[in-house]
Amino acid sequence: MRSLLFTLSLLCFASQTSLSWKKEEFRSCDQTPFCKRARSRSPGACSLIATDVTIADGDLVAKLTPKDNDDQINPLVLSLSVYGDGIVRLRIDEDHSLNPPKKRFRVPDVVVPELEEKKIRLEKFATENDPPSSVVYVSDGYEAVVRHEPFEVYVRERSGDRRRVVSLNSRGLFDFEQLGKKGEGDDWEEKFRTHTDSRPFGSQSISFDVSFYESSFVYGIPEHATSFALKPTKGPGVEESTEPYRLFNLDVFEYEHESPFGLYGSIPFMVSHGGTGKSSGFFWLNAAEMQIDVLAEGWDAESGGGESRIDTLWMSEAGIVDTFFFAGPEPKDVVRQYASVTGTSAMPQLFATGYHQCRWNYKDEEDVAQVDSKFDEHDIPYDVLWLDIEHTDGKRYFTWDSALFPNPEEMQKKLDAKGRRMVTIVDPHIKRDDSYFLHKEATEMGYYVKDSSGKDFDGWCWPGSSSYIDMLSPEIREWWGGRFSYKNYVGSTPSLYIWNDMNEPSVFNVHNAYGYYFHMATSDGLVMRGEGKDRPFVLSRAIFPGTQRYGAIWTGDNTAEWEHLRVSIPMLLTLGLTGITFSGADIGGFFGNPEPELLVRWYQVGAYYPFFRGHAHHDTKRREPWLFGERNTELMRDAIHTRYTLLPYFYTLFREANVTGVPVLRPLWMEFPQDEATFSNDEAFMVGNGLLVQGVYTKGTTHASVYLPGKESWYDLRNGKTYVGGKTHKMDAPEESIPAFQRAGTVIPRKDRFRRSSFQMDNDPYTLVIALNSSQEADGELYIDDGKSFEFKRGAYIHRRFVFSNGVLTSKNIAPPEASLSSQCLIDRIILLGHSSGPNSALVEPLNQKAEIEMGPLRMGGLVASSGTNVLTIRKPGVRVDQDWTIKIL
Questions:
Q1: How deeply is 699 buried, as exposed, middle or buried, from its count of CB atoms within 10 A (0-12, 13-18, 19+)?
Q2: Which has the closest alpha carbon to 502: 389, 588, 614?
Q3: Are 736 and 635 in contact (CB under 8 A)?
Q4: Cα separation values, 510 from 107, 108, 248, 337, Å
Q5: How far is CA 776 from CA 623, 773, 807, 836, in A?
Q6: CA 766 to CA 878: how far, in whole Å?
Q7: Residue 72, burial from CB neighbour count under 10 angstroms (0-12, 13-18, 19+)
Q8: Which residues does UniProt assign to the signal peptide (predicted)?
Q9: Are the C-beta atoms of 393 and 402 separated by less than 8 Å?
Q10: Three-state SS for 295?
Q11: Per-residue confidence (pLDDT) for residue 10, from 0 to 100
Q12: Are 245 and 265 in contact (CB under 8 A)?
């Protein structure tokens, strides 16, 4: 959203419109001492060897010392842990028994407690002599190896040729700068422009190489506006000026596309994938600034040579080595393994999966009412209306401007009567005003972040002089959560939810984690407000590992340009791959005025984003969907209707992400891991396992080249036409829609009646779209709960599996026996795509009645295809969505 520029200190400029992103205002690698030092090291520079290897407390432990320790450098302590499902954890730190000057920061509250339940307590290890190594069991398929000299850690397969999967320090670039005391070194401060960063314990950076074997590409490490498959940043064929991928949470407004520059969040998790169809992953739990190089083939004398290996260099300013190796081998295995460490996505309320309308700012209560009524007037559904910073009293959060919003509770209740919600913004900068109750309380209780002199930090942001709550403290986070009670947040109601913007601020080594703790505290506060009965909705801009447990995020201050529409897809794919599936980009671009064609195309793509919100800067022209002429209104309305039609499918996918960690939005290779044509494709994407979407990213385009993977057919969502898999098709891309396809062999649940909001669809009947494969078979799932509470955790849900085989459609319960929820909703229509014969009727059991069958054009909600093939539709079979039944095609 609005501009916040943080370099090494907290500094917020008060005028966004006078600023534009300037590369020179941010440090390059050459201007960052730890990065420059790490990049200058040569392969094999590490002289550490592993000694004193033993088992302690279920872990393999060892000392790491230089081979020729003439300088009497203190040893480091290595600890290797093994967890179920192919997870290995490697930690390296200074030896605390030798009393270092201080303890290095270890990031709390990210690794989920349940991980310890999966720990495999090691009792022994095997030894190998060539080279000397210690080997421990990981799973039936994998083992972990600690090579002693030179020191190296890797995971390999246990059978066959014992293929390596992931390794650390195979290229000998490991370096760990130990803490010092004054007089022991000369690197005690760093300067950039006018800022000086003091280092009372000297340099404490860490760097090492990580190698991925049998890999074609690596992905992940958000947040960057660049391609999904990460490009090499160093080595042959790469310009010397190319920067590493930076992980440093910053507010970068109007950010450039195709740049390795770090944006609003940092997730040091990388996934590899290769031509064998196998994937692996590596995660470094560290909150300090980080830089990561992807090294081009041939970067050193030992790389290349026909080996499908990708080397990477990981560099951090501080922290410890706390890393996780994920053995895979399938892409979904890797994301599940990562979710076992950092948690799965929170289950959203149903309303949050609908369309959100936002602007900086809707002016007053009259403006809110008019926008709301215009959606109804133009038959456009939406679920949430947002208020930005101007709704407050002088930019004091938890307040309302009494002149513009004199009756906030009544305003919210009017929206709630239609099943709609409101979201207000709460940023981390607190106005330093002695008459402001929040500032007064935070000051008196000592809850602000302190500066180097021990005083409350005083920065400058939208309210003027501002301070920041110390979110690292659990006690203070609990206090912050209490601010969202109805008593403390006067004017709030149960239908009001929260937006955390500009939460990148940081202090010292916890820089990248500040927004994570702010998001956590706000989400927990809404749970407290609802007495544990109401699922929270909190949108955050800053991200960190574990963010997925607390709500949604968006990609920040994009621009109304075609390239920003295009880059939104690799950005969202990367976020989903690294755990954060509930994500989206501002429809139309936050900055600038999109031409109608761009805005329409953005809605058409955005209808498939997991988080679907239109948003704009206050200096832009108003851009609600009805302001661009009748034809464009119709096109945007159709795109939004498409989203609402597919809400049952999206909600089912969100449940899958909540249980397994597998994202809603997926790269093609996650579903087709051996199809090499998909590995670098980041303009098309899968929604679940059943839908493939190809955006249109160029002005004036009326055709699109679409690669459809796999050996089975695909069905055009618009007209039911069939296209073969495994080839590229030139498709029509008229203004009405973008190419989207249903995969043969899948069943997609829909709701086809148009309503004003998702709440009003609650009792509507379902449509099942069955896309038959070459064997005339298909299956799919449907998940239903109350859409709002935590009762699903206690078994209050429906989970059905629909299977079509041998001419019979069966509905089966796949929820556990203790799960129980009833629904009166009926299956209204069953559409069969690709049925090979023309049946006369369908027999429904156990009702022992026949259902009506018709042949006709495909319908998408209330939209009828203008051309295409006739499809078979079973109408009104009379079966309930929560019951077992079969329908036999006669």
A1: exposed
A2: 389
A3: yes
A4: 8, 10, 11, 25
A5: 46, 5, 8, 8
A6: 11
A7: exposed
A8: 1-20
A9: yes
A10: strand
A11: 41
A12: no
How many CB atoms sit inside 10 A of residue 717's CB?
25
Give 377: exposed, middle or buried? Use CB within 10 Å, 0-12, 13-18, 19+: exposed
Tokens of 320: 């410890």
The residue ranges of DSSP E strands in 392-537, in sequence order, are 421-425, 429-431, 459-461, 464-468, 496-500
Task: DSSP letter for 19, please.
Answer: -
How many Å apart are CA 355 and CA 694, to the nearest integer?
20
Q: Are 725 and 708 in contact (CB under 8 A)?
A: yes
For residue 860, the model assigns a pLDDT of 66
Query: DSSP E strands: which ranges in 102-205?
Result: 119-120, 126-129, 132-137, 142-147, 152-157, 164-168, 175-176, 189-192, 195-198
d(CA 838, CA 853): 10
Hey, which residues are catalytic here?
501, 504, 557
pLDDT for res 20: 53
At how many degrees (to 10) do helices 630-645 and 596-606 cross?
10
Q: Is residue 507 classed as helix, strand or coil in its secondary structure?
A: coil
Distance CA(21)–CA(789), nearest Å, equals 42
Residue 376 has, within 13 A of its CA and on its CB side, a CA count of 11
For 295, counting Cβ atoms within 10 Å of its Cβ (0-12 exposed, 13-18 middle, 19+ buried), the class is buried
Q: What is the three-class DSSP state of 224?
A: coil
Evaluated on CA atoms 680, 684, 688, 689, the torsion sign reads negative
Retrieve residue 378's tokens.
Answer: 């133009």
Reported residue count of the chain is 890
Cβ atoms of 201 and 183 within 8 Å: the answer is no
Q: What tokens were used for 347?
A: 């289950």
Neighbours of 435 (CB within 10 A): 8
Largest CA distance in the chain: 91
Would the CA dihedral through 788, 504, 241, 186 be positive or negative? negative
> pTM score > 0.90 for this model?
yes
Query: Residue type at 446?
Result: G
Q: What are the φ/ψ torsions at residue 661 (nearest 5 degrees)?
A: 90, -5
Distance CA 716, CA 704 (A): 14
